[in-house]
Specification:
31% helix; 374 residues; 7-stranded mixed β-sheet; globular; alpha+beta
Length: 374
Amino acid sequence: MADSNGTAQTAESRARGIRATGRRRKGPTRRRRALTITLCTLTSVVLLGGAGLGYVYFKLNGNLKGVDINAALGHDRPKNVDDGSMDILVMGSDSRAGKNGEYGKDEGGARSDTAMIVHVYKGRKKASVVSVPRDTMIKRPDCTKDGKDVPGAQRAMFNTAFEVGGPACSVKTVESISGIRMDHFLEVDFTGFKKLIDALGGVDVTTSKAIEDNHSHLHLQPGKHNLNGEQSLGLVRTRHGVPGGDGSDLGRIQLQQTFIKALMNQVKNVGVLTNPTKLYDIADTATKAITTDTDLNSVGELTGLAKSLGSIGSENIDMVTLPVTYDPDNPDRVVPLMKKSGQVWDALRQDKDIPKSAIKGSAGDQGGTDKYVK
């Protein structure tokens, strides 16, 4: 098997990465046969494993959509370092087409409502997640979409990369600002997110303050709630209804990070092993909800990835926001704190923990909205 540079993978590198799927000689235990789901979406990553799904395997494969990132970007990318770590760009699409139209006007293109760089450390025991505010002003590189050149821009909002150039341009933009090669890409849209939450039976959260946001259609009183798909989407999209928030994307990111951890804690207790119907519904919904790079768009590959990450709990995930400050030219935008952002990317390139000093003083970690939801 060859990587994007045409270099044959060694047995060791396959064992460390996703290509290890299904190649273990030891017989699977009941635990390994389990459907493993990890969601970091729109917030989230949806990573689905389905060993033992049998006759539905090919139907689930048919649900998946893949984008050939390697072919689109070619060799003009950061070095593909095989050190046992893994980097995944996870995006939430805010397309207003079709059923998503209820969230706003369809202006002809999707944008990345959520973007997270998930760095899985060597050994697959812990991970760091860096959220990139969609309103971050960055230098967008030249891209290509559907065979047509898309000129770059010296000063553009981060989420316009997805709008003008699709997933490949988003990956290229992240790689250009971080210097880190993305191993994989995963996207979830609004409708898919809602359906997946409903299939899982909702998500339990506790609010300490009332949330009233007409923009995201979310109205919650203080207390414990089991949020359905519609309410969960409202929570991860709300910017205006949480006390302590500043109405910006920064406060919303904190809510998204809190929601992800609540979802991860709950999904381990879904109980799909004794309910084949529920197992299939979740698998069917999840595979319809996501778009991946072509190296991941099969049930077998997702199974391998899910199993390799199955031991990472929410307590082993460090979630931060890219260090930013408010743009002096436009208070509705943010710009990276270059020195502190560099510390974040340097740590991930070296497979090290992100230093606390890197996010100290960043506007992205001062919203306080995470204190009102758990």
